[in-house]
């Protein structure tokens, strides 16, 4: 999907954010940030599973109206529910996580939208493995629009979700490791810029 986005994206310094839950290890270098997740880390509220997990590793900074945030990472997941992407948080019961998650042996692009209770959508992307994935969350009006792509391929629309235009929101890179204790995600960039100009491509 073609989408008119920004003219220029600006890097966000890794030191700008605050972790919702500290990871087991964080290493920052010139080429990005490596994050090792704690075993059992996850974000979910109630639906189907009956539990509340709020131990995700999300590095958050303020996310204002009419702006977008992009997170890139190298996709090399191997275990059930390994995941990384973008976390957008209003409060403990109102948040969105979106990116790639390994589910039942397949890397899938998706989102969990939570407003008291979570929902979950996935679309398999097996050909993305071993490549750099970029997830883009764009805030405009009463909506959050999520797009993603691999390498320099066209953007794909992932989700359009309601987001209170007056809410104080924070967003940034996220990873979770519900099933193992040695997941390390290499984030290659965290950037911000103007929100996308429209939901659909021009004529």
UniProtKB/TrEMBL annotation:
This is DUF1349 domain-containing protein. Transmembrane segments: none annotated.
């Amino acid at each position: 999907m073609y989408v008119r986005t920004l003219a220029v994206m600006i890097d966000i310094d890794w030191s700008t954010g605050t972790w919702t839950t500290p990871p087991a290890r964080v290493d920052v270098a010139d080429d990005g940030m490596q994050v090792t997740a704690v075993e059992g880390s996850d974000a979910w509220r109630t639906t189907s599973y009956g539990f509340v997990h709020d131990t995700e590793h999300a590095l958050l900074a303020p996310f204002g109206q009419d702006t977008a945030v992009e997170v890139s990472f190298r996709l090399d997941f191997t275990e059930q529910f390994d995941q990384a992407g973008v976390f957008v948080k209003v409060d403990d019961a109102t948040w969105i996580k979106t990116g790639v998650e390994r589910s039942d042996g397949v890397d899938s692009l998706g989102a969990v939208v939570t407003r008291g209770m979570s929902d979950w959508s996935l679309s398999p992307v097996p050909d993305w493995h071993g490549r750099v994935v970029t997830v883009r969350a764009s805030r405009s009006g009463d909506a959050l629009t999520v797009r993603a792509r691999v390498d320099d391929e066209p953007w794909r629309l992932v989700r359009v979700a309601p987001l209170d235009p007056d809410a104080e929101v924070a967003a940034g890179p996220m990873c979770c490791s519900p099933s193992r204790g040695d997941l390390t995600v290499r984030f290659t960039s965290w950037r911000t810029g103007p929100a996308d100009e429209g939901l659909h491509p021009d004529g």
